[in-house]
Design goal:
With 384 residues, the chain is an alpha+beta fold. Helix content is 28%, strand content 27%. The protein contains eleven helices and 20 strands. Strands 10, 11, 12, 13, 14, 15, 16, 18 and 20 form a nine-stranded antiparallel β-sheet that branches. A five-stranded parallel β-sheet has the order 3-2-1-4-5, sandwiched between helices. The longest helix has 18 residues. It starts with a strand and ends in a 6-residue tail after the last helix. Bound molecules: adenosine-5'-diphosphate. The site of adenosine-5'-diphosphate has 17 residues, from strand 7 and strand 15.
Length: 384
């Protein structure tokens, strides 16, 4: 009988998970409250419920054999219900409700990373920004610092870099943590798959570039240009971290490389990640197929990078506006464009992405840049 994979979250990550699941012979059911979820194009069924909707979770549990996630901000009560169902043996929850419970909140994630003795920036937790964190609370600390919302932040929302006294007057509301600003020469990411038998396989480290004002991921290059010994240290750190976490599926680590060649963990995601989009075109096994293989108990695929690649996010740069229909390919350019079929453009919203392959990451980046410029021209600067 055909097995059903339930996915909590229905964005573009969910779309590609559904596509891979279907190709491997699974049925998919996606739980999301979004009115126009990008995953709808590829899911067999959409359950209209947010990630903290207990009632809809019951429906999901009745219909799915396996439950997995494309977001980590899942409600604690939903996680408890999933943990109970997994323990009762009626469904496999993967990577695991316990792993989600640790990673969904940046404070509990940082505490876990520090308790494991893994390298991460020193931090302090503030449970109520208004009561506990004030400019005065930070008087004894050296700037720059980074304030992060404990839950619900994404794409740079929920991250506030404190460089000056004026920044201290604009603290984010709500439970947060404050950590040292890590001086870095590069930001890297590494994807790791952990199979049902505990086997761990790493992808090659990739280099991340962020849009400077909004901290939104803008470009990913594969492979990251790193001395082989450094790339190996990234791999061993990532594998050790995922082994320590346990859980089954694809994970992503975001890392800082310091001027002294230290590798510092910024963030761990218990899911496929924007940094792995280029695996669709550039790797033997895409991160999406790999995640489905892992959660479904199939053998993991090869993580080999077959061709150097560059991925660019296509961000909405204008005001709120209906999104135009844009072409899937551009004349004279080899980049593969993916649009997420979002009908409304909102500032800095991810509308799609594109991936170019090349003989080197630099050549791929140049081709991707030409494609982005062409899209900017087509949209009069609104998207690119
Ligand atoms: P998000 O949840 O939006 O991915 P991150 O924690 O990854 O949030 O932060 C977004 C970006 O902000 C990082 O990629 C990095 O550029 C910057 N940043 C975050 N934390 C630090 C830090 N401690 N030191 C320096 N830069 C940081």
């Amino acid at each position: 009988v055909q097995q059903t994979i339930g996915i909590i979250g229905g964005g573009q990550l969910g779309r590609y998970l559904c596509r891979s699941a279907r190709a491997l012979g699974f049925r998919t059911i996606v739980m999301t409250a979004e009115p126009e979820p990008p995953a709808a194009s590829d899911a067999d069924r959409i359950l209209p419920g947010a990630a903290d909707d207990l009632e809809m979770t019951e429906t999901l549990l009745r219909e799915a054999d396996i439950v997995t996630f494309e977001i980590e901000a899942v409600g604690p009560a939903v996680l408890e219900r999933l943990a109970a169902a997994d323990a009762a043996g009626t469904v496999s929850v993967r990577p695991g409700a316990g792993v989600l419970a640790i990673l969904r909140n940046k404070a509990s994630q940082k505490r876990w990373v520090a308790a494991q003795g893994l390298p991460t920036a020193p931090f302090r937790v503030f449970d109520d920004a208004h009561a506990a964190l004030t400019p005065a609370t930070l008087a004894g600390f050296d700037l720059p610092l980074v304030q992060k919302a404990q839950v619900g932040g994404y794409d740079g929302r929920g991250v506030h870099i404190l460089r000056s006294a004026a920044d201290l007057e604009r603290l984010l509301p709500g439970p947060c943590l404050v950590e040292d600003f890590v001086e870095h020469v590069a930001e890297l990411a590494i994807l790791v798959a952990r199979g049902g038998d505990g086997e761990v396989r790493c992808y090659d480290p990739v280099a991340l570039r962020f849009e400077p004002d909004h901290h939104i991921l803008d470009q990913v290059l594969a492979p990251a240009v790193l001395a082989p010994a450094l790339a190996d240290r990234c791999r061993s750190l990532a594998c050790a971290t995922v082994q320590a976490l346990g859980g089954v599926g694809v994970f992503a680590l975001e890392l800082f490389l310091t001027p002294a060649d230290e590798i510092i963990i910024n963030e761990i995601s218990p899911r496929v990640h924007n940094a792995g989009h280029l695996s669709l075109e550039a790797c033997r096994t895409s991160q999406f197929e790999q995640h489905i293989r892992a959660v479904a108990g199939l053998a993991l695929g090869s993580t080999e990078l077959e061709r150097p690649a560059a991925m660019r996010n296509l961000l909405w740069r204008g005001v709120v506006a209906p999104a135009q229909r844009l072409p899937p390919t551009l004349p004279g350019n080899s980049a593969r464009i993916h649009w997420y079929d979002k009908t409304e453009g909102r500032p800095w919203r991810k509308m799609g992405h594109l991936t170019a392959l090349g003989d080197s990451a630099a050549a791929a980046a140049a081709e991707a840049e030409r494609a982005c410029q062409a899209i900017l021209t087509l949209t009069n600067g609104a998207c690119g």
